[in-house]
Amino acid sequence: MRQSGSSSTHRRRPARRRLLRPSRLHAERRVHATGVLSADGALSGARVRLRLLVAADLDEFVAYRRDVAVAAFQSWTPEFDLADARSLLAAQPAHGILPTEGEWAQLAIDAVQADGEMALVGDVGLCALAGQPDSYEICVTIAAAHQGRGYAREALEVLTDWLVDRAGAHRIIAQLDARNDGMRGLVSALGWRFEGAAVEGDWFKGEWTTLERYAVLSREWRARSRS
Ligand SMILES: CC(C)(COP(=O)(O)OP(=O)(O)OC[C@H]1O[C@@H](n2cnc3c(N)ncnc32)[C@H](O)[C@@H]1OP(=O)(O)O)[C@@H](O)C(=O)NCCC(=O)NCCS
């Protein structure tokens, strides 16, 4: 999918700083009150760990975002640089990993490597959609050297579990360029539902392109987890 962005690197919706609706407020209180996130603010799966991207990640983060293939269907270009990355950090949530309404959080994906150490392998953009309570959009990127190892799938499973079970999410969506077979393979593998396509509805990098949308409702995710 394409992470829409407000900064020079993301075609985000303009930030609309409104008061959180009660449902999200409750969700955030639950998260903080129950301490579901680990003490260092991370979500962990069998091999991956999700946490807020921080300044120490930026060299690696910029390096994989400058990869032509990684950038092809994303809102940034291979010219993505440290200044672009720093502007993302400036918009990170002040508390926890949930962004406020209309904003994106950038979550680092770490994974255990052959030497037993955790290393940054990619990231997930997480947006709290404006105008709809408890609704999120995600965007996943894995560095080319780490693709095809199931990290993206595990990261999205961990994040979706947490959003649904702990953060009170109702619906999560992903939007992708119709040419992006990797992202379609990922959301299809997760069992997310195809919601439709805006055929040649998106002027993107100098041409009309088709955007597909996939989604999962909390009840659908829970039913999948039980089956
Ligand atoms: C999309 C992306 C994150 C997938 O990463 P990945 O490391 O290949 O994903 P995983 O290894 O976790 O694979 C997850 C599933 O997607 C499937 N998949 C991955 N690439 C695929 C492809 N090109 N065609 C079909 N299916 C594919 C895998 O088969 C796997 O399904 P399975 O678990 O049933 O075997 C990666 O290709 C990427 O970073 N692309 C560039 C950035 C981008 O465009 N991101 C999407 C926009 S948000």
Task: Report the total helices.
Answer: 7
Biggest β-sheet strands, sense, barrel? 8 strands, mixed
Low-pLDDT regions: 4-36
Order of helices and strands: HEEHHHEEEHEHEEH
Which range best describes the helical content: under 10%, 10-25%, 25-40%, 40-55%, 55-70% or over 70%? 25-40%
Number of domains: 1
Strand order of the largest sheet: 1-2-3-4-5-6-8-7
- CATH topology tier name: Aminopeptidase
- The CATH homology group name: Gcn5-related N-acetyltransferase (GNAT)
Distance between the termini: 27 Å
Just give the CATH class. Alpha Beta
Strand content: 25-35%
Radius of gyration: 16 Å
Structural class: alpha+beta
What are the distinct ligands in this entry? coenzyme A
Instruction: Give the CA-based shape.
Output: globular
- What CATH architecture would you give? 3-Layer(aba) Sandwich
How many strands appear in the DSSP assignment?
8
What does this protein structure show overall?
- This protein has 227 residues and is α+β, with helices and mostly antiparallel strands.
- The protein has one domain (22-226): Gcn5-related N-acetyltransferase (GNAT) (Aminopeptidase), CATH 3.40.630.
- It has seven helices and eight strands.
- The chain has an eight-stranded mixed sheet, sandwiched between helices.
- The chain is globular, with a radius of gyration of 16 Å.
- Residues 4-36 have low confidence and may be disordered.
- Coenzyme A (COA) binds at residues 1, 70, 73-74, 139-142, 147-153, 176, 180-183, 185-186, 189.
